[in-house]
């Protein structure tokens, strides 16, 4: 308990203990001195009385006069202090005696020492009776010590009372003094407890003192002020740190779950949302649909105009998609130029087709990006969730598969998934692998040439080179492997091989002394948009020593959809080299009339889909006639493709078409047959 007491309690207790022992020592000394003084006084009284009696009785004792001796003793009995007196002769026989009260204790002189001898409540005083220096007898006076004991008891009470009073006064004085001295210390202790418990650094100690404690208080206040300042700074820093941590957490979540460019949910977050949507659809038997979008020929924009322009296009696409779908639906950037839209509660094919058409129409609108006027399109695959049969990933795979089927139909189409598409996808993957192998081997590809005939003179005026692929004895039609090659990014090396092979063949015909007509080569958009497109073709012409006017470049309208400005730059370079340029399949592209007059072209080739319907539809004939009139107004020649009947040729001739190409005159021929035809 003492160990758990406060410091000031221990201090007070220590002071009291020290004072107690000090006072006890002083009281003991005083008491002892008082008792000794009283004893000394009592002995002095007995000594004086014994001396008087011994002197008075010496003569009577010498002569053995007992009566006189007794009388003298009786006279001494009048002294109140003497309780008993006896006189002995030299032989220690009692000569005279008297006794007051009942004193039972009597001792002969031989048992007492000269002077005072204290007994039990009595004091004996032995005084020799001398005569001429000889001891002739003994006087023994006995006195009661009750008065001494009473004085001792009184003295004890006084000493104890003084001791207790002194202790009380000491306690009160020290307690009061301690209160005065320890008050500032208690203030300091209270302050330390408040600071330690509540972390309240704004409290201060009073600074009115001018002593050492005042200096201590000022020092403590300075420390508290410094700590408070640091705490304020620390709190500010902690607040800022918490804000930064919260900001970084949001940023990390944003980076982990949202696309940095378009701010749309990324693949990771979309898959989570899709899995939840699938669970909800299975649980509530509700509808769920996925639209998988891929921008057509977007790679050309990145390769030709740069990724900065491509990024701006992606941002615009994301904004358009977000504006079309509702807030409860979700659109994400799947990666690259692919986007995925999740529609909950919709499984009506007509409604899905309407949404897909709105997306295609919105994205097909011209985009002003930097100084470029861009036209893009998208292919959309649509997959519907089947209850309890599919996971989110399977639905995505089905939508992706149907998207590739939409691409096969041409830019800007959509397609719904069906199970047969999975088998076709496997065939497509196998075909892509075999195309890659064929490019490495080169001899797997070959060229045929279809003559182009003047509609008036029926003479040969040109050739169109067409690629053929023999895959281990199986002839794969271009309509089957060309789209796969374009989608897989393999069309450019095939195009380079075609141009080189055509130039090599032209060189061979020239060496054989044949009179040649221009040979047309189909140039895909991806090849045209290359920065060094014209340089590559020029290098091939020079390598084989082929005059540029013998090579003609055929392009589709869609070659200009991705980047009209850059395509125009490439065409001007080709035109400067000396090549003739024609637009193939004219009339099937997008917004062709808005820019056809600005292109450095020489010929328009009317698509076979229009030629095959000549004479069957007034509107179709009107379109063909308009194309021919447009070409004439621009100073361009026209050529009808896929002419198979005389009636078709006659109608084209009446409309003013310049040339035709088709089975009516020639099928595609091998190079040897063309050599014979040239002779």
Task: Give a brief outline of the structure.
It holds the Pfam family GGDEF. This protein has helices at 7-62, 66-76, 146-198, 212-257, 267-284, 298-305, 307-324, 349-364, 392-408, 420-441, 478-487, 491-511, 525-528, 533-544, 564-577, 608-611, 618-633, 646-655, 671-678; strands at residues 82-89, 94-99, 115-118, 122-131, 134-144, 288-295, 330-335, 338-344, 367-369, 372-374, 378-384, 414-416, 445-454, 460-471, 474-476, 519-522, 551-556, 580-586, 603-606, 637-640, 659-660.
The CATH class of the largest domain turns out to be Alpha Beta
Residue share in helix: 40-55%
Q: Which structural class do the helices and strands define?
A: alpha/beta
Beta-strand segment tally? 21
- From the alpha-carbon coordinates, what is the Rg to the nearest angstrom? 67 Å
Number of helices: 19
| CATH topology label of the largest domain | TIM Barrel
- Mean model confidence by pLDDT: 84
Query: Which homologous superfamily in CATH is the superfamily of the largest domain?
Result: EAL domain
Distance between the termini: 131 Å
Shape: rod-shaped
Largest sheet: 8 strands, mixed, barrel
Number of spatially distinct domains: 3
Order of adjacent strands in the largest pleated sheet: 13-14-16-17-18-19-20-21
């Amino acid at each position: 308990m003492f160990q758990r007491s406060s410091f000031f309690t221990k201090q007070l207790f220590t002071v009291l203990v020290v004072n107690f022992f000090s006072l006890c020592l002083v009281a003991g000394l005083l008491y002892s001195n008082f008792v000794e003084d009283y004893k000394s006084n009592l002995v002095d009284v007995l000594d004086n009385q014994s001396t008087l009696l011994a002197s008075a009785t010496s003569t009577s004792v010498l002569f053995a006069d007992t009566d006189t001796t007794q009388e003298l003793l009786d006279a001494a009995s009048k002294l109140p202090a003497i309780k008993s007196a006896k006189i002995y002769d030299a032989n220690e026989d009692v000569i005279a005696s008297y006794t007051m009260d009942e004193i039972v204790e009597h001792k002969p002189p031989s048992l007492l020492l000269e002077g005072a001898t204290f007994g039990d409540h009595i004091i004996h005083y032995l005084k020799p009776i001398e005569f001429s220096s000889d001891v002739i007898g003994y006087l023994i006076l006995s006195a009661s010590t009750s008065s001494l004991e009473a004085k001792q008891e009184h003295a004890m009470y006084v000493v104890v009372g003084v001791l207790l009073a002194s202790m009380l006064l000491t306690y009160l004085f020290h307690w009061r003094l301690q209160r005065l001295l320890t008050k500032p210390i208690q203030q300091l202790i209270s302050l330390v407890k408040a600071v330690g418990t509540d972390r309240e650094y704004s409290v201060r100690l009073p600074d009115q003192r001018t002593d050492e404690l005042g200096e201590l208080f000022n020092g403590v206040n300075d420390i508290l002020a410094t700590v408070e300042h640091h705490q304020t700074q620390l709190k500010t820093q902690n607040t800022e740190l918490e804000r930064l941590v919260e900001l970084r957490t949001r940023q990390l979540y944003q980076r982990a779950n949202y696309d940095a460019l378009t701010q749309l949910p990324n693949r990771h977050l979309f898959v989570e949302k899709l899995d939840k949507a699938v669970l909800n659809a299975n649980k509530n038997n509700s509808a769920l649909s996925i639209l998988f979008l891929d921008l057509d020929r977007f790679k050309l924009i990145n390769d030709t105009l740069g990724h900065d322009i491509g990024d701006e296009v992606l941002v615009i696409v994301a904004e358009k998609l977000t504006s079309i779908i509702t807030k409860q639906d979700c659109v994400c950037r799947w990666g690259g130029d692919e986007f995925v839209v999740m529609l909950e509660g919709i499984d009506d094919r007509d409604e899905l087709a309407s949404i897909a058409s709105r997306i295609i129409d919105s994205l097909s609108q011209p985009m002003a990006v930097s100084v470029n006027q861009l036209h893009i399109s998208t292919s959309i695959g649509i997959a519907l969730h089947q209850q309890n049969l599919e996971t989110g990933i399977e639905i995505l795979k089905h939508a992706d598969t149907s998207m590739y089927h939409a691409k096969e139909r041409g830019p800007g189409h959509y397609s719904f998934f069906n199970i047969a598409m999975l088998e076709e996808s496997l065939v497509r993957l196998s075909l892509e692998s075999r195309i890659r192998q064929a490019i490495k081997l080169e001899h797997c590809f070959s060229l045929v040439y279809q003559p182009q005939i003047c509609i008036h003179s029926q003479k040969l005026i040109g050739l169109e080179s067409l690629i053929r692929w023999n895959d281990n004895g199986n002839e794969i039609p271009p309509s089957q492997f060309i789209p796969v090659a374009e989608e897989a990014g393999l069309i450019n090396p095939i195009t380079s091989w075609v141009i080189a092979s055509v130039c090599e063949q032209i060189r061979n015909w020239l060496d054989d002394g044949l009179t040649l007509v221009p040979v047309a080569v189909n140039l895909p958009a991806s090849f045209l948009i290359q920065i060094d497109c014209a340089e590559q073709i020029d290098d091939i012409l020079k390598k084989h020593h082929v005059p540029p006017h013998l090579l003609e470049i055929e392009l589709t309208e869609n070659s200009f959809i991705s980047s009209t400005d850059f395509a125009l730059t490439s065409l001007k370079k080709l035109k400067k080299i000396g090549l003739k340029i024609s637009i193939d399949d004219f009339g099937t592209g997008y917004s062709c009339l808005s820019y056809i007059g600005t292109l450095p072209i020489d010929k328009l080739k009317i698509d076979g889909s229009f030629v095959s319907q000549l004479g069957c539809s007034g509107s179709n004939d009107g379109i063909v006639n308009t194309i021919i009139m447009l070409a004439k107004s621009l100073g361009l020649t026209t050529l009808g493709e896929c002419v198979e009947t005389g009636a078709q040729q006659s109608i084209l001739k009446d409309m003013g078409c310049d040339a035709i190409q088709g089975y009516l005159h020639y099928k595609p021929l091998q190079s040897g047959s063309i050599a014979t035809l040239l002779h």
